[in-house]
Amino acid sequence: MNSENWQERTELLLGKDKLLLLNKAKVLLVGLGGVGAYSAEMLARAGVGELHIIDGDNIHPSNCNRQLLALGSTNGLSKAVLMEQRLMDINAAIKVKAQHLYINKENTPQILEGNYDYIVDAIDTLSPKIALISNALKSNIPIISSMGSGGKTNPSLVRIADFEETYNDKLARMLRKRMHKRGIYGGFKVVFSPEQVNPSALKFVEDEENKKTTLGTISYMPTLFGTLMAAEVIRNLCQITDYQYNKSV
Fold first, then answer.
1. For residues 128 and 113, what is the distance between their CA atoms, to the nearest angstrom?
2. Which residues make beta-bridge pairs with 54?
3. What is the pLDDT of residues 196-229, one digit of tens each?
4. 130-146 burial string, b = 16+ CB within 10 Å, else e?
5. Structural domain tally of the chain?
6. What is the dihedral of CA 109, 110, 116, 119, to 10 degrees?
7. In whole angstroms, what is the distance from residue 169 CA to residue 151 CA?
8. From CA 3, how far away is CA 7, in angstroms rounded?
């Protein structure tokens, strides 16, 4: 499927110079679930030249309603390994480093020694999310983070904003409390939705690691979150400003 001009349409839109910026970029993406896998794919298809992808989880049947990698044939397999194979199938020239690994406060500083141009945080648990964001800010690496896509159905409300501008988001609320203790009051981009969560979409769980509750999800919301994160990264790396159209009567 790959050919020398597979990026022809992207180049037509962005131009050679901006496409070259993408080809030379190195992005770290952590979390390959409903949000992160779509984000990784959008980055690869746009022409990002190097991706370091990390996830310590395997595919579970409950992932099939929303996760790109979840199929009957992939049940039980490593998300990191599957994503690497998929990205290489999209672009054989892409450099992919895949790790089947859960990040934490101990290993995050070493991971961030990779000279990244951007970081995509698609982690859905609090402690590793805090570790990644706080270390990225400390290292002056641009980062965009996904807030909660669960329990929501209205795609028109999803937006990109500074972290301190979030509201009606439980994950952001818990994260903000802990970030403030570290002296962090925003300064990084997030994707979030202020849509109110239906309480009936929540249930308590006992068999999931690092989780006490889980929210119902719909297929398209995590996809949208991941796509918007990729878009913000791509536009930033390419230094894209909005095209100004001439308004003629």
1. 17
2. 30, 99
3. 998 888 887 766 655 667 899 999 999 999 999 9
4. bbbbbbbbeeebbbbbb
5. 1
6. -50
7. 10
8. 9
Reference 224, options 171, 152, 170; nearest CA is: 152
CA angle 194, 200, 202 (to 5 degrees): 75
In Å, how far are 85, 136, 161, 230 from 225, measured between CA atoms? 23, 20, 12, 9
Q: Are 24 and 49 in contact (CB under 8 A)?
A: yes
Give how far Cα 234 sits from Cα of 27, 48, 71, 122, 217, Å. Answer: 10, 8, 28, 16, 27
Other beta carbons within 10 Å of 61: 10
Structural contact between residues 185 and 151, judged by C-beta atoms closer than 8 angstroms: no
Residue 29 resides in a domain: yes
* 90 lies in some domain: yes
Q: Please indicate, yes or no, if residue 63 is contained in any of the structural domains.
A: yes
Structural domain range at position 21: 12-237
pLDDT digits (tens, 9 = 90+) for 82-101: 999 999 999 999 999 999 99
Residue 151 structure tokens: 């329990």
CATH of the domain at 60: 3.40.50.720
- pLDDT band for 246, please (50, 70, 90 cuts): low
Tell me how many helices (H) and strands (E) the chain has: 8, 9
Asked, for residue 227, whether it belongs to a domain, the answer is: yes
